[in-house]
Automatic annotation (TrEMBL):
Highest taxon above the source species: Bacteria
Positions of the HupH hydrogenase expression protein C-terminal domain: 9-114
Name this protein carries in UniProt: Hydrogenase expression/formation protein
Pfam family, one: HupH_C
Family from the record: Belongs to the HupH/HyaF family.
InterPro entries (alphabetical): HupH_C_sf (IPR038527), HupH_Hydgase_express_prot_C (IPR006894)
């Protein structure tokens, strides 16, 4: 995977490092794209380089979020919006599964309570 843009070359090198880290130690990582001085054309070029994989996840929490697998397994394009629809985060997350996706232990406990007839209101919120 190549780009003529030195900035994108540096991003791809960082992705290689993060993927190697994930493979060797299981440690995930991320690149916060909104904190980088990227022109819109560079964002589009990066998006095209990474392509799209087979998985798309949508979440509704503090606003809509969309998590897309890129064509590179373990590299995820993540965008979070606030309730007004403004983009608040754009990340490249390098992980087997994005950090926000797995259910948290307290939420699982609340679900168990619902199924057991206890604290039914907790899991409904």
């Amino acid at each position: 995977m190549q780009s003529d843009d030195p900035f994108l070359q540096a991003l791809l090198a960082e992705l290689r490092m993060l993927l190697a880290q994930l493979l060797e130690s299981g440690e995930s990582g991320q690149i916060d794209l909104l904190r980088l001085p990227m022109a819109p054309a560079q964002t589009e070029a990066l998006r095209a380089l990474l392509g799209q994989g087979e998985i798309v996840i949508t979440l509704e929490a503090e606003g809509p979020s969309r998590i897309e697998e890129t064509r590179l397994s373990g590299v995820w394009w993540v965008e979070h919006h606030d309730r007004a629809g403004h983009l608040v985060a754009r990340l490249l997350e390098v992980a087997a599964v994005p950090e926000i996706v797995p259910a948290a232990a307290p939420d699982i406990g609340a679900s168990l309570g619902v199924l057991s007839g206890e604290d039914a209101g907790k899991a409904e919120t």
